[in-house]
Specification:
Elements: H1 7-15, H2 21-34, E1 41-44, H3 48-61, E2 71-75, H4 102-109, E3 113-118, H5 152-159, E4 165-170, H6 176-182, E5 185-188, E6 208-213, H7 216-226, E7 255-259, H8 269-284, E8 288-292, H9 300-315, H10 334-345, H11 348-361, H12 366-390, E9 393-397, H13 413-418, H14 424-429, E10 433-440, E11 446-452, H15 458-472
Parallel strand pairs: 2-3, 2-4, 7-8, 7-9
Antiparallel strand pairs: 1-3, 4-6, 5-6, 5-10, 9-11, 10-11
Length: 473
């Protein structure tokens, strides 16, 4: 059993010798075995105990980093040197990374312990974690339901108590949506805030790396470590990183925007009621609630899927059996090697998105779809810019419904895609968003509330989330 509720309590117990790091890591390894049926890990690293031995000495010497002994799981789309990197796909089943992703290296440099790599939708394409060559992940809250996706494994391992925190990626909601369905915190940072170097690309102008945690403080601390400029990533932004944890206390009442478009038809009544209850609590605590408009919200799913599938089609062209990854044995010729390697080793959802992306980029359709979608994307950015001139934070539901049953939507891609209707806007605009667990419905399933802020204003997101965690929940 864990004797701490957040990392600051853990490090205090480690320094005071009230907690053994080796025993703590062994506890997590035992829990992972006990809950193996959740299928949340693709790989578990036995050298975690070895890491614990080294870091325990550093803690004793006073030379340990700011995440010393934090046990972290990493989504299997991020590179860890000398460890498998499969993206939950058959096409990369034997691939081993030769370097560390920048975000992973920063964790290791601050003495975090990497305990394993988590299951996800193949190449991060999916909203339920059922599109994985390793099989579906089960939601630890209700094992007959999905944990969300694509970072379902990363959400499940935190919710199930199999590690302290985890890293996931968010292209259209893939951190916030599973965080909502599993009842934990999940942050999608501003695009460019965390280096994407070492992240296997799905949609390069959308992908963001961020943390899952059981409390706001741990997410803030991890973000302090993984954020920052990286010369290896041309989209990384050179801006100073505030002390997110140090400045986590909110010192003024904020203006909170509530967009009517996010409370329209299609929102589960129990989620609507729960979010409105939180809004009323904030109002009675002195926060100003402002009704705002985000008029292009209805186009978010269409715009998102046109642009991301186009980028996916381009990014996945490199998996051709020629350079690395799985290839067909004894192909008849070069074309047979290309087509067979791809058709036999990509899953259905990945193929669907490659075909959609190739279509919207093709001659005759490029202007009608891709170019137009890029223009609409700019309108999303304008909507949010105008909104943040009026308010400090935007508050919405994270998802329109709670976790659905396994296989319930597998044959209805459109219904699956519509589950991301409240999260894709932040990726289109490049702004940060966080999921806050705000209770459960009548069936005991978690309900998530989303906060969004202006670009590079994660500090306000953490402050508001911490206030809600401490005062309202």
């Amino acid at each position: 059993m864990l004797t701490y509720s957040n990392y600051s309590e853990k490090i205090s117990q480690l320094k005071n010798k009230k907690l053994s790091l080796q025993e703590n890591v062994q506890y997590f390894l035992n829990q992972i075995k006990t809950k193996e049926h959740l299928n949340a890990f693709n790989f578990v690293f036995d050298d975690a105990i070895e890491q614990a031995n080294t870091i325990s000495k550093k803690i004793e010497d006073g030379t340990a980093g700011k995440l010393a002994g934090m046990v972290v799981a990493i989504k299997d789309v991020l590179a860890i040197k000398d460890k498998p990197l499969t993206c939950s796909s058959k096409i990369l089943k034997d691939f081993v990374s030769i370097y560390n992703a920048t975000a992973v290296k920063k964790l290791i440099d601050e003495d975090a312990i990497i305990i394993g790599k988590t299951n996800c939708d193949e190449f991060a394409m999916g909203s339920s974690n059922e599109n994985s060559a390793f099989g579906a992940v089960l939601n630890p809250v209700d094992e007959e339901r999905v944990p969300g996706g694509s970072s379902g494994g990363s959400a499940a391992v935190v919710a199930a108590g199999l590690c302290d925190v985890s890293l996931g990626t968010d292209t259209g909601g893939s951190i916030r949506q599973p965080a909502a369905l599993c009842g934990i915190y999940g942050l999608k940072p501003t695009y460019g805030r965390v280096s994407r170097y070492g992240l296997t690309a799905f949609a390069s102008s959308f992908d963001s790396i961020g943390p899952f945690s059981n409390n706001v403080e741990d997410a803030a601390l991890v973000m302090e470590v993984i954020a920052g400029y990286d010369k290896n990533d041309s989209t990384s932004v050179n801006k100073g990183i505030p002390g997110y944890l140090e400045n986590i206390a909110l010192d003024k009442k904020l203006k909170i925007g509530v967009p009517k478009e996010f409370f329209a038809e299609g929102l589960d009544p129990e989620i609507k009621e729960s979010i409105e209850t939180q809004i009323e609590k904030l109002k009675s605590d002195g926060f100003e609630i402002v009704n705002i408009d985000l008029p292009h919200t209805q186009y978010s799913i269409a715009t998102y899927y046109i642009l991301t599938t186009a980028e996916a089609s381009s990014n996945l062209a490199r998996y051709d059996g020629a350079r690395y990854g799985t290839r067909k044995e004894n192909p008849k010729d070069l074309i047979d090697m290309y087509t067979s390697s791809r058709s036999e080793n990509f899953g259905d959802e990945v193929k669907r998105r490659i075909m959609l992306g190739t279509y919207v980029l093709s001659a005759g359709y490029y202007d009608a779809y891709y170019k137009k979608a890029q223009k609409v994307r700019r309108l999303f950015k304008n909507d949010f810019d105008k909104a943040f001139e009026l308010v400090d934070i935007i508050l919405t539901p994270t998802v329109p419904a709670t976790a659905f049953k396994l296989a319930e939507k597998m044959n209805d891609p459109l219904a699956m895609y519509l589950g991301d209707i409240y999260t894709t806007s932040a990726n289109l605009a490049g702004i940060p968003g966080i999921n806050i667990p705000v209770g459960k419905n009548s069936s005991g399933l978690p309900i998530g509330m989303q906060l969004m802020s202006a670009q590079f204003n994660e500090e306000t997101l953490f402050q508001m989330s911490y206030y809600i965690q401490k005062k309202l929940l």
